[in-house]
Amino acid sequence: MPKFFLEHTFGKEFFERPQAEIDKDFKAAKANSTTDAYWVKSYLVPELGKIYCEWDAKDAESIKQVFSKTGTPYDKITETKIVFSEDFR
User: Fold this and answer.
1) How many CB atoms lie within 10 A of CB 22?
2) How far apart, in Å, do the first and last CA atoms of the chain sit?
3) Cross-sheet strand order for the sheet of 50-57
4) What is the mean pLDDT of the chain?
5) Are β-strands 50-57 and 3-9 bridged in parallel, bridged antiparallel, or unpaired?
6) How many Å apart are CA 17 and CA 57, to the nearest integer?
7) Residue 85 has what DSSP assignment?
């Protein structure tokens, strides 16, 4: 299944909210994941006010369908290719 990155810009104030509120947003993404679009993990960058989320999905449209249910905004969805450093030993 292809890998995708979602980029979200929330602003620094997003990370200043109580942890329970932040967790609620992540739980919504997990709860709305499907076999066609599955959230793997996220990288939080509070000083930039950004979150980068890794997804396994059959296509970008499948991820868009998940976010149409959650109402969570995102900037862009990019298909990625993975290179493992261990492949270059």
Assistant:
1) 16
2) 26
3) 37-45, 50-57, 3-9, 76-80
4) 92
5) antiparallel
6) 30
7) G
User: According to the 3-state scheme, what is the secondary structure of 6-57?
Assistant: EEEECCHHHHHCCHHHHHHHHHHHHHCCCCCEEEEEEEEEHHHCEEEEEEEE
Burial of 38 (0-12, 13-18, 19+ CB in 10 A): middle
Alpha-carbon Rg for the chain, nearest whole angstrom, is 14
Angle in degrees, 0-180, between the axes of helices 60-70 and 19-31, rounded to the nearest 10 = 130
Q: In the structure encoding, which two tokens stand for residue 62, read together? A: 């499948």
pLDDT tens readout for residues 37-74: 999 999 999 999 999 999 999 999 999 999 998 888 89
Domains (range + CATH), the chain = 3-83 (3.30.70.3090)
Mean pLDDT score, 25-44? 91
Residue with tokens 């296509």: 59
